[in-house]
Specification:
The complex is a heterodimer.
Chain A: H1 6-26, H2 30-55, H3 59-89
Helix pairs in contact in A: 1-2, 2-3
Chain B: H1 2-19, H2 25-45, H3 49-74, H4 84-87, H5 90-113, H6 126-133, H7 138-158, H8 160-167, H9 169-175
The chains are: A mainly alpha, B mainly alpha.
Chain lengths: 102, 177
């Protein structure tokens, strides 16, 4: 992997993060919002692992493991929340969850 | 190796772009699995085999299965009301299948091309990661375990309406808030 510049890997992570952010902001379905957050977390982990590989240190992979833990906890709690929201409103459109008049 | 990296990066970008543009949540989940697999291939290429395996096992395996179960439970797909024969149209699975096939061809090319050293740089073995995890990062590992416990308790609490509704429908309806 010596032939590939480090910047190209970081560019890939940035593009993936941008795609996840676009999906989170643009979609009106909470499942897609959650997928966008997953993509963003994964892109951040990719940047960590690439940097760790660039400097030859295991710290990047350690950080990726922590990101994995955060993603797992976030998905489990988020899906339980969406289940309750769907039971209440019969929809997964975040624009219709306005019971607090926010 | 450069070819493998750039093609895997291209597949990841295309699959991710398709994730955020699909109308059906189930199709988007398929493309997301392909995207995660290609990122796992990149991890393997840069000399991080442990996180490559974990990316497949936990991300593409456990988390995506949870998400697909959620989609199946709520039937939130656009095509949820149509018969199953229309779900399995060729164009529904052709895109993910083609991208996954490209990844498989790339893996076969790498295995055929370079037995032994897969990476030009230094591969960081799982031993180094483990030593770092239980050495300077021991406190962070404990905090991560607490976070997982909090996620478990929170998910159980939030889902307890469903559990009580399944066991006793009348009580579940009263408790619904």
């Amino acid at each position: 992997m010596n032939g590939v510049p480090f910047e190209h890997g970081l560019l890939l992570a940035a593009l993936l993060f941008a795609l996840g952010l676009a999906g989170t902001l643009a979609r009106r379905n909470l499942v897609f919002t959650l997928m966008g957050i997953e993509i963003m977390l994964n892109a951040a982990g990719l940047a960590f692992v690439l940097a760790g590989a660039h400097w030859g240190q295991p710290d990047g992979q350690v950080m990726f493991l922590f990101i994995l833990v955060v993603a797992a906890a976030e998905v489990s709690v988020g899906l339980a929340l969406f289940l309750g929201l769907y039971r209440l409103l019969r929809t997964l459109d975040p624009d219709r969850a306005r019971l607090m008049k926010g | 190796m450069e070819f493998a990296f750039y093609s895997a990066a291209l597949i990841a970008l295309v699959a991710t772009a398709l994730v955020v543009t699909r109308r059906s949540a189930a199709h988007a989940a398929l493309y997301l699995v392909v995207s995660l697999l290609s990122v796992a291939l990149i991890f393997f290429l840069v000399g991080a085999p442990l996180v490559a395996a974990l990316e497949i096992v936990i991300y593409a395996g456990a988390i995506m299965v949870l998400l697909v179960f959620f989609i199946m439970t709520l039937n939130v797909s656009v095509e949820a009301r149509r018969p199953e024969s229309e779900w399995l149209q060729v164009r529904a699975w052709l895109g993910p299948a083609l991208l996954a096939l490209l990844l498989a061809a790339e893996l076969a090319y790498l295995l055929w091309r370079a037995p032994g050293g897969m990476t030009g740089g230094r591969t960081i073995p799982p031993q180094d990661v483990s030593v770092a995890l239980f050495g300077p990062y021991a406190l962070a590992v404990e905090i991560a375990s607490f976070l997982l416990l909090a996620g478990l308790v929170g998910a159980y609490r939030l889902g307890s309406h469903f559990i009580s509704a399944m066991q006793d429908p009348a009580e579940g309806e009263e408790e619904g808030s």
